[in-house]
Amino acid sequence: MGTSRIPESRNYWLDLGLFYCSKRETSRARLRAYFLRKIKEYRIPPEDAPTHVSWFDSVLDELEEKKILDDSRYAGILQRDYLRRGKGKRYIEQKMKERGLTAKIPDLDFDLDSELERACELASKTLNRSSIKKIEDPYAVKTKLLQKLVSSGFEFDLAKKAVELVLRSK
Hints:
With 170 residues, the protein is mostly helical. The protein has 9 helices and no strands.
């Protein structure tokens, strides 16, 4: 899907970056990947690509300087969203890496008690599903709950503890 329109100045990349950032919060790495995709999409000749790369690198610096791009703000938004959805530490850290937020982001704060509370909440929610209620073997129920918690990014030991707490209170 190439186009005959080839960006001819740094201002084009600035406008494109501002447009992209106006629609969604993003990281520097994702916006850079977007710009690189645009180079391929516009079929910019390889001999001109370094010029464009230097243009959009300076645009990225400018957007960070103006606080339009802020990786730590974006990481906080993602962390709150995933915590709200009941995801565990491992899952959140993996998603941060996928979005290119590893270099500038300090270790995320995870309180062990709140992590256990979220794991228990997810386990009891899963336990109330009709597909789990149909299972009569207690070992199979426990295994299903463990699988759900581990796949949601909770550490195995924490997931095991949460499942035991939820099954005891059942």
